[in-house]
Design goal:
CATH topology of one domain: Rossmann fold
CATH architecture of one domain: 3-Layer(aba) Sandwich
Shape: elongated
Structural class: alpha/beta
Distance between the termini: 114 Å
Radius of gyration: 39 Å
Oligomer: single chain
Strand order of the largest sheet: 2-1-3-6-7
CATH superfamily of one domain: Response regulator
Order of helices and strands: HHHHHEHEHEEEHEHEHHHHH
CATH class of one domain: Alpha Beta
Amino acid sequence: MRRNATLNQKLWEKTLPQESPARVGVKHIQTVGGFRTLAQTQAYRERPPVSRAISLDIQEVISEAENGPSAERFAQGANEAEGLQPIFPVSIAIADKNPMVLAALEALLTRDRRFNLVFMESDGAQFLSALAKYPARLGVIGWELPPLRAPEVLQALVRRPGAPKVIVYSGTRNPGAPAETFRLGGAGFVSKLSPPERLLEVFAAVAAGDMVFPFDDIHKARPDPITSLTQRERDLLAALESGQSNAQLAREFRVSVNTVKFHLRNLFGKLDVRNRTQAICRYLESKR
């Protein structure tokens, strides 16, 4: 019996092909994975794998993608992607009372292919008028734009369909200017002390849909009461700075003295002041 066992072992070893250690490792993995044992022939082990089942699965996936619910979702996404407009180049309109600032911004923007300068104006009224003829996606304005100011420009644009996103670029010392710009619908605020690279970064960020403002304690910032005045009250406040009496103001505005007193009471109430001196101080403070 021992002789038969030895003979069987020799026959077994004779049928095994001589292979490299790497192939032995593969065999070990095959055995552990539950595949056929070492008795497989080398031709069987090395023949190419059958891919029919995989091909059928791929065809099913393709069919599902073309005809199933996922096809509708894919087509919808493709249509939405086709409707997207590229962000750049971005059309920009500028308003600033300082000619040097206008020249610097023009030179800065013409060197950057991401932006297309549409027009430049030196006052707020002309800026609003030009926007009606030459629309732009971004508006860059200073804080003081005689005869208007940035808050008044922002208030006018809120009511205008298709208005540009507005960035205030200013050197004002008013600490509440960024918060007021945000409150009135502005998209960004940049100090004129910032480097030009920062300004371009803000333009690009706002064009992409972001809002950019410096850190500020909005609880301490309060809206400028000047923005709540009517044009007549604003003109009257400017006239107070010259030191005219009520009678002189009445003659200048061609109204009665009682009408002047009526407007002054409304003016003092809106500015939260008690007299002319305080009203003039508040007016001068807002011009900084």
